[in-house]
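Follow-up to my post from last week.
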Amino acid sequence: MRGFFISRLIQLVVTMFIVSVVVFFILRLSGDPILVVAPDFFSEEQINQMRKFWGFDRPLGEQYLTFVSKAITGDFGKSYLAKRPAMELVFERLGYSWMLAAASAAIGLTVAVPLGILSALRRNSFVDLVITSLSSLGTAMPSFWLGLMLIIIFSVHLRMLPAFGALEPKAIILPSATLGVGMAARLSRMTRSAMLEVLNQDYVRTAKSKGLQEKIVILRHALRNALIPIVTVFGLQLGWLLGGSVVVESVFSWPGLGRLMIDSISVRDNTVVQAGLLFFALSFILINYAIDVIYIILDPRIKFQ
Amino acid sequence: MITDAQNSHQSETGAIADMVPRRSLPRRLLAILLKSPVGVAGSIIVSVIVLLAFFGPVISPHDPSGRNIRARFEPPGFVDNNGNLYRLGTDQLGRDVFSRIIAGSRVSVLVGVISVLIAGTLGVIYGLISGFVGGFIDSVMMRIVDGLLAIPFIILVIAISGVVGAGLSTLILILGFTGWTTYARVIRGEVLKVREMEYVIAAYALGQSRLKVMFLHILPNVVHSAIVLAAVQVGVTILAESSLSFLGLGVKPPTVTWGLMLSDGRQYINSAWWMTAYPGIAITITVLGVVFLGDWLRDFLDPNVRGRA
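User reply:
Got it. Predicted complex:
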């Protein structure tokens, strides 16, 4: 057990190292980063001064090492634009992003699990057809478009819910519903197939034939075993949720990390983009690490590897 | 191309093999396609979109960039003084939304096909080498893939196109050069299974070189997973393009794309719902068609996974 945690931890560190290399080089793909931010009227002399100030005159390897050693301590440098530490800006937005992600995941799960179970129990029935069709539709739909359509219906026409910002608690409803539908569509499909697989197992048949109530068989015997694949897919779809939140936060002007990233990218505020990218990667990796741990709790058979 | 793996699948699913004995591959494909309503729906949708992309300018009822200041923001079904019908309404410059949707299909098809070809080729070669060589090199190569996959795809693409700048061909390249990681991981897993098979060991025993074994015996038996994945990825790529163009980080006007139409629509969301509704429906139907076709391809190429997600 301890070996498992330690080997996963090492893997996590290696992955983060590679992410840091990727993030560092992405922002140098454009060539000289100084020319991008320096005002047009700057002289050669001033540009060189600026280059020296930000450390861009050093060799690439040295720049990377400085970047990583500072990043580990949480120092990503100051935002070019806000003139404040990039980390501070990221932290300000993090709460909003987590709130949105949690609400969307909760909506996704509460919709998907019951529907997936129902769909599996009534396999090939009309209900199953409706649920699986809706789930295909929800997967194919661009989430930001669904968001726009919800704005048209609930904000423009019915005037029930706010379309922008995060000034009142009601404002989270539309963005989280938008992302929640996408999550539900992806998760219900997986719940259905996981349940189908489990329902065919011998222990389910045994439980049924010894006269247990249908409800108990489904909840205690079937669902519990189907949870493992559901949790896996949940972890993987979290990547979709994080990515989708970037675009959806922009649609709803939700003040989260995603919107900060888009705003910073469009004004080329690179320190903030770097901090944001690393944060997204770190949260994705940590959540999947947590899921590995949940596995062991759900299935005592998985112990090592 | 009938591979060993497919042959063994067919003996397992004897029913299909009995029903369509010894016909050419296209005819077998067609026979099986007609049995699957999802496959039929998917191929009809995809064919229509591809036809629109090719013959758009011929079919299109109006010039997609033809402005008409006197017919701005007209609702769907509007008929102007000359009796011209604007089926899905007009936008802020009086351009026909229906014609623009037809014109936009071209970008979706181009991006979907070319990026996926680039990503698929890169990923298959990478996964093939990684799985075949094994050992330390394999671990290093896979850790790199893990690192790239740790940044959600769309965020990675947004960051790169923000730095590199956008435009249609740049965007296609960016999507192609970032999308390969999924293929690499899947193909590598398949290679690990296949390389221990008896026919591979037999090929070695017959004195074939490692390179020949890799390309002639292993590749044909893993490539079906890449094809199934590619169908899924076409949908993912089309959605990514529309998100990027919507955010202003993708294709730029005057090129017509569904994502850009949505970004126009958003500005007039209070008054002209049709500018937002229809391009999104076009994206949804296209992706749905691709997904259906992919589901059917998966069932066809790999009967063992039928019914799973």
